[in-house]
Design brief:
This protein is of the alpha+beta class and 181 residues long. The protein has helices at residues 3-56, 90-101, 106-110, 141-152, and strands spanning 70-71, 74-78, 85-89, 115-123, 129-135, 160-162, 165-167, 169-177. The protein has a three-stranded antiparallel β-sheet with strand order 1-6-7, with no helix packed on it. A three-stranded antiparallel β-sheet has the order 5-4-8, with helices on one face. Strands 2-3 form a two-stranded antiparallel sheet.
């Protein structure tokens, strides 16, 4: 095969590769658009639900319970050195958890997607994480999905309490996806 034929073959292979990448990206953008539409619909539904609830809420603030002794969620683990159980604050645990579970999505690396994803979630009365929403950069759906995966993989915690009774408690955690240079 001559040099010109090899160059033509390489050029053809490159065009085919670029076409495949364009199709992948276009399919991804369709997913992003569908996700944005679903988020808008959920916000509208939530807004309607909130307005219905607001009509049923008692007008007197005096009826609302006041928490005199609130405790945040935490984890318990056995100290390998002492053998005693120790409390780990939720904020300390989640920082280590994100570090250990973090995986940069290959698709995001291929298409150089990066940015910060803010995951809003709550720890329910049973100590399980429940995702409220995740907001990332433009076209960052795959980053949002990875951030949600990380938070959903949290083990069950000892739930937050208000005067000894378990309660739901909200958190917002930023997870930054940045490629190394």
């Amino acid at each position: 095969m001559s040099t010109q034929e090899r160059l033509n073959e390489l050029a053809k292979t490159k065009r085919e590769y670029e076409e495949i990448r364009k199709k992948e990206w276009d399919a991804y953008l369709v997913r992003v658009e569908e996700s944005q539409i679903a988020k808008k619909q959920k916000k509208q539904a939530d807004s309607i639900e909130k307005s219905k609830l607001a009509d049923n809420v008692k007008k007197e603030v005096g009826d609302l319970p006041i928490c005199n002794n609130q405790e945040s969620p935490y984890y318990v683990r056995k100290n390998p050195t002492t053998g005693f159980e120790e409390k780990i604050a939720f904020t300390d645990y989640i920082r280590k958890h994100i570090y250990n579970k973090f995986r940069y999505p290959e698709f995001a690396m291929d298409y150089e997607l990066e940015g910060r994803v803010l995951v809003q979630f709550y720890i329910d009365k049973e100590g399980n994480p429940q995702i409220k929403e995740a907001n990332g950069p433009k076209n960052g759906l795959i980053l949002e999905e990875e951030a949600i995966r990380i938070i959903k993989s949290l083990p069950t915690a000892i739930p937050a309490t208000c005067d000894g009774k378990p309660i739901n408690i909200m958190f917002a955690i930023p997870i930054t996806f940045q490629m190394q240079e």
